[in-house]
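Suppose you are handed a protein chain with no further information: no name, no annotation, nothing but its sequence. What can you learn? This example shows the usual starting point.
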Amino acid sequence: MSFQAYLDNAEKQTGITPRGFLDLASGKNLTKHGEIVTWLKTEHGLGHGHATAIARLVTKGPEFVAEHHTEGVLHLDGVAARG
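A reasonable first move is to predict its three-dimensional structure. Written in structure tokens, the prediction is:
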């Protein structure tokens, strides 16, 4: 499964876009990978793989993820925005 697919599936499960998760994590001052994964699993019901992908997005940032995991293309505003 591609990195973007993990983000898209997490959005489908929760209704929260990748950018939304970035904002929520920032609002909670979550910066450590493990604490982000735990938060995503407990409060949002995500599985480990999806939580790990979002945690990487939060800790490394969108630019890093785009460069290293999605061949330069990363969609943060949700599946519907790509319409």
